[in-house]
Amino acid sequence: MAEHELEVEIVAEDRFVWSGPAQSVSARTIDGEIGILPGHSPLLAVLGDGDVVVQQLNGQTVNAHAEGGFFSVDNDRVVIVAGAASLEGGNSGQGAA
Length: 97
Description:
The chain has a five-stranded mixed β-barrel with strand order 1-2-5-6-7. It has strands at 6-12, 15-29, 32-36, 43-46, 50-56, 61-74, 77-87. The protein is mainly β. A hairpin with a 2-residue loop joins strand 6 (61-74) and strand 7.
């Protein structure tokens, strides 16, 4: 992983959804919208129902819809574990390595 990127993983209770490097992640928590950039302090939040937007290093965007779960940030690693999650549009399940 490069110095100024995030390692992102999105999983649902029953399956893998997406993973890959990114420059930013935004999601809805029960306390409101949150945006994460590299270097963010550690965080654990409860996910609300809504969109997760991952801005990949290549400029493309991954959009997923998540329903409940947890949002964790630690050492530029973002893990989203949702009760249910699905990719929107034609996003692939694996980001660029």
